[in-house]
Amino acid sequence: DMITQYECGVAVPPSDAEAFADALVHLADHRALLAEMGRRAAQMAQDEFHRAHLADRFAGLLENVGRVMA
Fold first, then answer.
1. Is the dihedral of CA 17, 6, 50, 46 positive or negative?
2. How far apart are CA 8 and CA 54, in angstroms?
3. Around Cβ 61, how many Cβ atoms within 10 Å?
4. How far apart are CA 22 and CA 28, in angstroms?
5. 3-state SS of 35-65?
6. Residue 70 in 3-state DSSP?
7. What are phi and psi of 46, to 5 degrees?
8. How many CA atoms lie within 13 A of 59 on its CB side?
9. pLDDT digit string (tens) for 2-42?
10. Which three-class secondary structure state does DSSP give residue 8?
11. CA neighbor of 13 nearest in space, from 5, 21, 31, 2
């Protein structure tokens, strides 16, 4: 997934409050890591959600639908 690919966050099981708390404490104790993750998240947003990139992906989707419908 994108978090792993870009190393821009921490994933914890959704119902594991202790793991979530541990992750928050770890990030609070490692501010440089937190800042680097923020930079990587901004890069991910630019790479994955830029208007031109989304338009290309949508055009590809429409082409595939057109082939299936033909």
1. positive
2. 20
3. 10
4. 10
5. HHHHHHHHHHHHHHHCHHHHHHHHHHHHHHH
6. coil
7. -65, -45
8. 6
9. 999 999 999 999 999 999 999 999 999 999 999 999 999 99
10. coil
11. 21
Residue of 8, 10, 1 lying closest to 43 (CA atoms): 8
Could you give the CA distance from residue 45 to residue 57 in angstroms, rounded to a whole number? 15
User: How far apart are the C-alpha atoms of 39 and 10, rounded to whole Å?
Assistant: 14
Residue 42 to residue 9: CA distance in whole angstroms: 11
* pTM confidence score: 0.70
- Could you give the angle at the alpha carbon of 31 between the alpha carbons of 29 and 37, nearest 5°? 120
Among candidates 42, 41, 47, which has minimal Cα distance to 8? 41
Report the pLDDT value the prediction gives residue 57, as an integer from 0 to 100.
Answer: 87
